[in-house]
Amino acid sequence: MEVSYPACSPSEGGGGGSDEPTIRLLVSSTEMNGAGNLMDFLDEPFPDVGTYEDFHTIDWLREKSRDTDRHRKITSKSKESMWELIKSLLDAWSGWVVMLLIGLLSGTLAGVIDLAVDWMTDLKEGVCLSAFWYSHEQCCWTSNETTFDDRDKCPQWQTWAELMTGHAEGGGAYVLNYFLYVLWALLFSFLAVSLVRVFAPYACGSGIPEIKTILSGFIIRGYLGKWTLLIKTVTLVLAVSSGLSLGKEGPLVHVACCCGNLFCSLFSKYSKNEGKRREVLSAAAAAGVSVAFGAPIGGVLFSLEEVSYYFPLKTLWRSFFAALVAAFTLRAINPFGNSRLVLFYVEYHTPWYMAELVPFILLGVFGGLWGTLFIRANIAWCRRRKTTQLGKYPVLEVIAVTAITAVLAFPNPYTRRSTSELISELFNDCGALESSQLCDYVNNPNMSRPVDDIPDRPAGPGVYNALWQLALALVFKIVITIFTFGMKIPSGLFIPSMAVGAIAGRIVGIAVEQMAYHHHDWIIFKNWCRPGADCVTPGLYAMVGAAACLGGVTRMTVSLVVIMFELTGGLEYIVPLMAAAVTSKWVADAFGKEGIYESHIQLNGYPYLDVRDEFTHRTLATDVMRPRRNDPPLAVLTQDSTTVEDAEALIKDTDYSGFPVVVSRESERLIGFVQRRDLTLAIKTARQKQDGVVSSSMVYFTEDAQQLPASDPQPLKLRRILNLSPFTVTDHTPMETVVDIFRKLGLRQCLVTRKGRPATHGSDDEPGPGVHHVQLDPSRVHSTSQTVSKGTGSRPAGSLWTRMKL
Predict the structure, then answer these.
(1) What's this model's pTM, rounded to 2 decimal places?
(2) Burial 312-324 (b: 16+ CB within 10 A, else e)
(3) I need a surface site. Which of 41, 82, 642, 804 has the fewest CB within 10 A?
(4) Burial class (CB in 10 A: 0-12, 13-18, 19+), 86
(5) 211-245 confidence digits (pLDDT tens)
(6) pLDDT tens per residue, range 528-582
């Protein structure tokens, strides 16, 4: 997704918003930092003061201060009357109510999406005559004419060729089914990209890079709005049903966060505080993963490890509750029809052996290499899309990729079916009731063992045929996923990455199984694989490979392992999963620290400071302060000698996000910091509502204004919009510390002082009077930061600069 926005200061940018262009009031009547009511002459706060513009970053400290002040007022009022006590209790429980609503709605939407995807995916191949809204599996559930060998065939379900021509077999029927399969895929993808382009451009992509940026404090109005929620839900069904190499898991996180933002608007506690809103969104992300994989615990860990920027303990509890409710809701809907919550339930009857750690680790190496290849190739393609004419034709790109995918996928049964069905078959163990080609082994007619304990057998012709088809499917998935992820339709990456790993793992598993059968006397098999024993489970290798490839792309570790064993129910195999996940991350990190989501954040130029990054700056704040020696000084306001005309000229001639306020230009002792937006609104409102305020009126940032002659114009007192406690560092503070301060405290700005005065470069390279700011280059700090020096104006050329205004 390409976003164009003005450069913003460390203090500007942040939150996911609603569709409405109006900005909600975020300030209370008083604040601990001195920014309460807009002006002394106003009885009520002006609605836009203290809010944030689009594509700006929130001030975490200010939002925390507001919430503390609000909570203090509610607590004090609760002692006055019974009604105030009830209101305080409702306020305390509002967070749990929001979590409940998020879980219910996200679980319901996920269940509806699952059912719709199953039906529309099968619609490309045929239709159920008894009830057209039934999928293939549902249609044959009630049939009494289904045989064991042809369990997927029943009279009620007919392919399009059989329905139109009456013939189910033959070259003509194959060509007709082929044509209609491609036609349905093109129709679904065209509808998806058209709806996204016309109604909700923010509904495209995975959504997780933007969610990470929003949770770090960035404002993207409309990204979590009602229209985005509706269009993303509808187009996600269309995109997945089209057969493109994408999944619905990442977009479900976006859908759940849209639900969270929607319910935040019902409670002023969250709608008027962007910091509190982000606590809700973190919990909503957990609910999204919970319903995407049927993994509530994994969802909480995913939000904590991968998505959230600020995750207090109470958010952990509420995330757990939201994920629990969402999982219960999805289980009640039962979209998979198996009375289970998990997507790929497996039940293996053979333990794993220590010698198998070698192929598991090799799968981890493959996953790390695949993750590196995919990230570099996909980012290169997306960059080309953004910088060439290709980006101007998103509909044509989607149609072209869909056509290529459908034409190449139909001949291969492993690419024709939905990716979820493919992964489920690859994970399955070969029991006596399996009819898949992957289970076409040569059976011993004298075998009299229980059906759940089938020994290793030589592979039959069906297995070898399936291996060739899987090899072709592996190459196809690797290539086509690179071009699919990032198009202007909802597209997740979890399922395609798992499919690549599952295919590779199943191939490796079958190879190890046949080696163990034919060479059981080798030393590596001798101790644990006896003739006639069930030694190797190829499905387990597919599961380990899926975890390895997903970890290589996303760089998840703990949450990935938990999601995988929740997804499959294979708790016994947690050690192989851990070994593969850690190996995959090590290998991928050797080529680059950024996962796919961090890479897309950098590509799109989002201001994001990753709390996990390590910086090794050797410079001091004074070494990188701007403006430089020959640049004009950064403008300041004085506490009692600035006129309205001076302030308006300063606002007009500069584009800084705020201005330090000093005692006088001679002493330059720092008093506080005033935001550009608040100053602009204050002067504008004063001219409209306060009589006598003209260009020559004095602006006072002091508590008591000086006595002026009666002939002088009415002064303007702006003490209330002045931040009396801006965060400051000395000019000799190491830049490593400065970056850490911005990253961990979520500051909008940090003032550099020397002996209580703003520091600058003097004529002898010693700090002198004036005001400067620090500018960081993301290419040097290995990360795009969340702070940019200017609140308005044009976007910086090239990569997004991190500028900390001082």
Answers:
(1) 0.83
(2) eeebbebbbbbbb
(3) 82
(4) exposed
(5) 999 998 889 989 999 999 999 999 999 999 999 99
(6) 776 656 788 888 999 999 999 999 999 998 999 998 888 887 778 889 999 999 9
